[in-house]
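Thread: "does anyone have the structure for this chain?"

Original post by V.I.:
We have the sequence but no experimental structure in hand. Need at least a predicted one for the grant figures.
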Amino acid sequence: MDLCRVCLGPKPNRDIFSKSQKTRSDNKSFAEIFMFCFDIQVDEDSKISTKICIKCYSKVRTYYNFKCLAVKSDAYLKQLHEESIVKNEVFLRDDDDDIKNGHEQPSSPLSNDTQEPEVIVKDEPKDEILFKNGDDSHDYDDDNVLLSVIKNLKYEYVEDDSKEEQPLKKKKKKKDVVVKSSSDPVRQICEECGKAVKDLKAHSYLHMPVSCRKRFKCKSCDKVFSSHSARNKHNKIKHLGLKKQCEICNKTVTHLKQHIRLIHNRSSLPFYCVSCGRRFISKSTLDLHMTSHTRDRPFPCTECDKKFSCKQRMLIHKRQVHDKEKTHLCQLCSKSFFKKYHLQVHLRSHSKEKPYECPECGKFFSTTTILKSHREIHSEEKAFNCTLCSMSFKKRNYLNVHMVSHTKVKRYPCQYCGIKFGRSDHRKRHEYTAHEKNFISA
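Reply from O.Q.:
Generated one for you, tokens below.
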């Protein structure tokens, strides 16, 4: 039975036996309060409803406080009445003792209408004078104390009721209008990738197909861009030369402070990954990194069977693999690339630039990935073990080459005669010795 125990209303939302329903003035449960107010015993294991609606709950609490006030006031009045009786008895006993000792008690001034009231002597005791005149000023003082105590009790319970009913009746507050300054613009969330951007309309062009995008051509060169901001940034960096050089690694970068913090002072970054210990500059980058520690890949590609841990990576995959998007064009050989970094690495093949030096042997490499793979040679530890034999290797690539001897898989066919080889270097050697050497000599 899902009905209110008092008004039989539907959908009651408070349980009589809930542990949170305890008053602040005493430690009574709501079931005890219910029994105290209405003399109704509610069993916890009963099949009858043990729930109550919010309106009946507030009424029961109000009645409980009112009844407690009445009980306390009654107890106080009875105690006060008993004390006054005891005091009167003490006064009468003192008067009887005075009469027995030969002191006559003066008659009351109201006993004879024709007789003038007696003059009160100042030397007489105060209590005796008050008793003679019939003026019970002591009781008058007690009444004032009584009224003040009842008033304090009343206001005490009124304040408790207002505090307890405050979460039940919430007043509608006017929403404060937050006026943001021009230095702190309001950011909008993109539904496609989840990024917070300043200009959502300009950002939405990035998710459109390349053929539908509006392009902005650079005024100084032939490059085109998807937005005005990208074109202005290109103009500042490439044509105006607004780059700064890092004194630590001698790199020329656009944002020097951000470069130093991300590359050279990574320990100062505020967000910390518990699993691997890496630090990140923002919570969004940390959340994106945390997906690499889980096996959940809830974002599948609609074009193929691949799945990704975040939506942003899935969209990048679609743009790069299925849409064949290549917006970064090499001006020397007309090759195009999807990412700007890939274009920068490609340009080093024209300039023969190798900026990354190995600290162990002094060799130079064009990318950090190649340098990292090379440095595994200098380590004494052979971390990559073969599962089919006892051999171990320093690099994963060496292990992959070794596994061909176990699997006997030949994936590299000769482009001249079609003979397949298990390793690409063996195929290259065959093509030179069997086909190209004789052709070159002739």
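V.I.: this helps a lot. Residues 108 and 114 are 13 Å apart (CA to CA).
O.Q.: and Residues 14-100+128-162 form one domain.
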